[in-house]
Each structure stands twice: as structure tokens, then as C-alpha cells.
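User: I'm putting together a teaching handout on how sequence relates to shape, and I'd like one worked example. Could you take Atrophied bacterial Ig domain-containing protein from Suilimivivens aceti, show the sequence you're using, and then write out its predicted structure as C-alpha cells right after it?

Assistant: Happy to. First the sequence, then the C-alpha cells directly below it.
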Amino acid sequence: MIDKQRMFLFSQLFPREKAEQKYESFYRRKWRLLILMGAACIVVILLLCISREEKRNLSEEGTLQRKEWNEGSYEVILQGNGIYGKERMVLTVTERRLTQEELEALKTEAVQRLTSEILNGNGSLKRVTHRLLLPGYLDGLPFQISWKSSNAQIINSRGEITAEEIPEDGLSVSLYASLSYEESSFTEEIPLWVYPERMTEEEAYRKELQELLLKTDRENPEEKEIWLPEEMDGQPICWQEELDKTIFIVIPFLVMGMILLSFSLDRQLYEKERKREKEIRRAYPQFVSKLQLLIGAGMTPRAAFIRIGREYERKRREGGKRQYLYEEVVLAGFAFQNGKAETEVYRSFGRRCRERECSRLSFILAANLRQGNEKLLSLLAEEAETVLLEQRYRARKYGEEAGTKLLFPMLIMLLVVMFLILLPAMGSFKKG
């Protein structure tokens, strides 16, 4: 059934188009959106129902399932129906505690993993040459681990080798790992041998050179200058200072900044050009009307150009805004006053404006110089009407483009709302 009031509204909104088509198009679009939104609502409701069932913790038998020892505790909101009615209660269900048999099985795994994970690059526990990595826990196991050394002068409880001199045949020492879980704990002894670290020739040379530099600094602390050693073990040494390399980091950013600045300036120029084109198109109908009025009053097109240009200059001196179209009119007036041919001035005006409407006007003016003002006035009237139609079309086009640009932000908002609704459901799926 057609709504006559709506039909009348469409006939007012689109007087040059068929109201029935606009009416049908509007309602087709409206029902498509409503069906799409209804489908989305149904999907969301189904997902929320599924999520609600997945999150249910209380079984029909009245039991709550504990999580395993590594999964943590959770809260559940319960309603107890008693003699005083419904009572809302919050219960924190703790994770399941391991049995003694399970602990014994995990102890063996923990000891096996400890003997391999503490090596930190050492070949084996029978030959330790640098620091051990002593963890406070093991991934996937419930134990908290603390460490103690049988001889802190050889290796401390952090796994650092503290002995200053280690003989070639090594030193024997033990580390004690205390593993605890709840009230249960046990200690495991890990014997190991500490040996001096073997360095390559390059590492030994570097260490000796470092010691030589330190010795040079300590020899004459009261001197104002330090003379760096020129040789070591009979081999000459050439020293160079390593300067700050910040400049090499900054240069690429400076080059990138220059490139971005160049693009930015080009873009600004392009935007100014677009702004000029739009401004000329907006000012053109008013200019044609003025030109038509002055020529109808008996002026020649040449005099009308000069008159409009002088009026614009007067407004500029009074603080008026600059307008690109009238700037070109002023230049055309100067050309007339300098004695330039009218045909060439009109064509130059059309080329400088770089707009189709101005080129069309320049052609009309140049082609009708010898035909008199009557023919020219009718052509200017047609031009004014054509410009008004083009302006209406352009305004409608801009409105459609603005509506299209708003679709993406609205879609983003819809996705955000759906994400906020579905977030609890996705969290429950992961936990399940």
C-alpha cells in the first residue's frame, strides 16, 4: 500500500524525477537494511545463547567442576532458594590440588628437566666453565624452586662461578634444589665439576689487551694525559676512537623527512589547485549574471570586463576576500587597456581559468564580437541557465559522495559494537 503523504514528500524532494521510483527505491533500501540488521541481531543472540550455555558451571546434579592445578580458580554466582527466598552468593572455586601419587610422578620429571635446563651452554654438569642458569620454576610443573650451594666460594646460589683461581683438574661442588608445592617439599642434590674457562687465542689476546689498558690507566693517576700502549708482545697497536654513530642513524630520517616534505608541499599545491577550481566554479554564475546585466545596460563586453575588474579591486582595497575568477577578470581588463585584441584577450581568459565553463564563455564572447549585443544577450542567458543546472547536478553529486564516505565510519562502529558483544563469548570458548 502506497503512503500518499510519503509520496507527496518525494515529489517535493525530487521535482524533476519520478516520485514513484524514488519511493520504491527508498523502501527497497530500507527493507534491505532492516533484514540485514535483523539477521545480524539473530546471529548475535544465538552466539550469546551458546556462550551462556558454555559458561554454565553448575550441573543438573548440583555439582561444580574444579579446574586442574595449572588452570587457576574461577568465580561463580549462585542463587540459593531457602526459607527466606532467593539468596545471591559468590563462590570462588579453587583449582584441584595434586594427589601424592601425581606429585611423585612430577618429581621425576622435574629432576630430569633441571639437570638439562640449568646448563646454560655448558657441555655437561661434569664440566662447568661459566655461569649456570638456576630457574625459580619450571613451565608446566607446579613446583617453586629455591637454590643453595655447598660451597659459595666456588659457585653461589645464583649459579655464578665465584672462585678466582680454578685448577686445571677442576673443583667439585654441589647445588641443592628445594622443590615445594603447597605443604609438600623435597630437596635434590645436583653434583657438578667446575673447570677454568678455556679461551681462544683471540679471546686471550682481547683479555690481555684490556688488562694492559687498565694497567696504563692505574700507573700514573696524577698525570693529565694517558699515553696508550704502542705495542704488546712486540706487536704494534694502532688506536682509533669510536665516535658517536648517531649521525648515521639521523641521516636516513633526515632524507626521509625531506622526501615527505617534498610530497607534502606537492600535495598542498595540488589541494590549492583544486580549491581554485572549486572557487572559480562557485563564482562563475554570479560573474555571468553581472556580465549579462552590464551588457544589457548597453556596455560592450570589453567595458563590462573593465567595470567588473575595477569593482573587484575596490572591494579588495576595502578588505574583501581574494577570488581567483575576478583576479583573471582584472588581468583581462589590464590587457584591454594595453590595447590587446579582444579575441586574444577572451581566449587567454579561458585558457588561464582552465575551467570548461570559462572556456565556453570566452568562445561565446570571441565569436559574437561582430553580431551585436542582442545575440550575445540570448547566448549569455542560455549560459546562465546551463550553469545553474550544472550547479544543481554538482551539488547532488557532492551530497551522494558525502553519504558514501559516511558508510565506512558507520561500518566501523557496527563492527566495534559486535566485537564488544562477542568478546565474552570468545573468552568462554577459549576457556572451554
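A couple of points you could highlight for students: The CA atoms of residues 54 and 428 lie 7 Å apart. Residues 373-431 form the longest helix (59 residues).
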